[in-house]
Amino acid sequence: MTASEAPGRAGEVTVPWNLVVPEADVYLVGYGMRLPNDFTLEALAVLKRCTRVFGIPPIHAPDFGLPAMENLFLRYAPDKDRQRTYQEWLDTVLDAAAQQPPVALATYGSAMVGALVSHRVLAEAPGRGLTVHVTGGTSSLDGIWADLNIEPFYGLEIWEATLFVRQKIEPNTRANLMLPQAPLFGVHHGPDLTAGITMETSSTIAALRDHLLRFYPPSHPVRYVQTTSGTQLAGPSIETLPLAELDHPGSHTMSTLFVPRRTVHDDLDFPGRA
Fold this sequence. Notes:
The chain is an alpha/beta fold. The chain has helices spanning 41-49, 82-99, 116-124, 140-147, 161-166, 206-212, 264-269, and strands at 6-7, 12-15, 19-22, 26-30, 52-56, 70-71, 103-107, 132-135, 156-158, 176-180, 221-226, 237-242, 256-259.
């Protein structure tokens, strides 16, 4: 415990800015999409007190007193099974936490959105006698709500694109549909977040387009949305195109595909799937 910390209530520690943060062996930290704008006080306090911080990807922010992060991306290799890589990430974090807690796993956005290793940490840490605390962060979804002026409470579905197609999901066309990282169609993590992760590759999202065409007319406007991230706050990138042209090349691999709800006019013009 550093000089800036003092004992708090049982299982908690008082940190600068009069915060009280639960003590844990592992902290799952999201540092947001716009750096440093999205840093939270809790994220800064937690990262400062950790003995090791593992970044996916790491960030460099010494002006905020943050320690150097260890780059888990270095464990990737072109000919290496991704399931093995993710298991190594998990073991690295949990082994470090068992040896010299607390440690942190830090990532862009929210640690609980699109970060399956974080879910595996939550699932497996208790079995190793380790405690976990999640520090929230601003995810890409928050940016999309603003970029497209969406109120998610008024009807929204979110699916991983490959799972959406392979399980033949029928979307509720009265709700907006979001498919995060849709240009990575074919990269599949598996529906069970606690199970092994498998990944496959595909050079086209034509199968996604064809599946969507069962429920939406070819002219239905869809949008690729890339929210602001990093230190360049240039604003979002939004590309609108008809569903029939979904598989054209050039879209950013980290874009989210937004499929608006169908309107009464759509229903009159589109006879529906066969």
